[in-house]
Amino acid sequence: MYNRLYDHFGSQDWWPADTPFEIMVGAILTQNTNWQNVEKAIANLKAAGLLSFAAMSILPVEELAGYIRPAGYYNIKAVRLQNFFALIEQQWDGDLEYFLDQPAAVLREQLLSVKGIGPETADSMVLYAAEKPIFVVDTYTHRILSRHGIIPEEYGYFEIQELIMDNLEEDTRFFNEYHALLVRAGKHFCKKSKPKCGQCPLSGVGGITDCTQTNGYD
DNA sequence: CACCAGGCAAGTA
DNA sequence: TACTTGCATGGT
Question: For the whole model, what pTM was predicted?
Answer without folding.
Answer: 0.94
